[in-house]
Design brief:
Helix content: 40-55%
Bound molecules: 2'-deoxycytidine-5'-monophosphate
Structural class: alpha/beta
Strand content: 5-15%
Largest sheet: 5 strands, parallel
Distance between the termini: 6 Å
CATH architecture: 3-Layer(aba) Sandwich
CATH topology: Rossmann fold
Shape: globular
Number of domains: 1
Number of strands: 5
Radius of gyration: 16 Å
Strand order of the largest sheet: 2-3-1-4-5
CATH superfamily: P-loop containing nucleotide triphosphate hydrolases
Length: 209
Amino acid sequence: MIIAIDGPAASGKGTIARRLAAHFGLPHLDTGLLYRATARVLLDEGSRLDDVDKAVSAARGLALLDFDEERLRGREMGEAASVVAAIPEVRAALIDMQRVFAARPQGAVLDGRDIGTVIAPAAQVKIFVTASAETRAQRRALELRGRGERVDYASILEDIRKRDQRDSERSDAPLKPAEDAKILDTTDLNIEAAFAAALAMVDAAGPRL
Ligand code: DC
């Protein structure tokens, strides 16, 4: 069974994906980390984020990298990832790795922006997780503060809006629900309720292979 979870930044999709993976004993890939790690290579070597050749070789070299999640999950890397993710050649360089992961015999849970539309269009379960920009900004501010970053709500809300716009308006694999995705709005749900709703959606998809 492939479970595809898509949605905008801080919608709760990562937590839901992780918990579904644990519940069903499936491997989980947070595909945002691939774009964040690509951006990190460019920033570390002092390259511009829009240098297509450098960005593609960074994306291709990722398998060799140690994913230092703490730094990858910071605010700067989320922004930078959204910029490199708009480069079609970077997306092309990362497709195979994601499709191979999705094709594991026991199945997989992947979360990102284009899993149900591009990476795994045949996924048995597709959930598009969303929430209001204000709620997402509150969650992101809490999360970043918990990580020790000093952030204010207004600038995080601005980041979220900018990122939504960049991710939704790019030409290649824009953020949008697949036609057969179920929409899960987590604005008024805590994590337990959101997970329960996601689980019900998986169960409603029918018997699991
Ligand atoms: O999910 P995230 O916040 O870690 O993702 C960071 C950025 O990476 C996001 O703004 C857009 C990009 N991304 C993407 O374009 N496609 C994916 N499948 C996952 C992330």
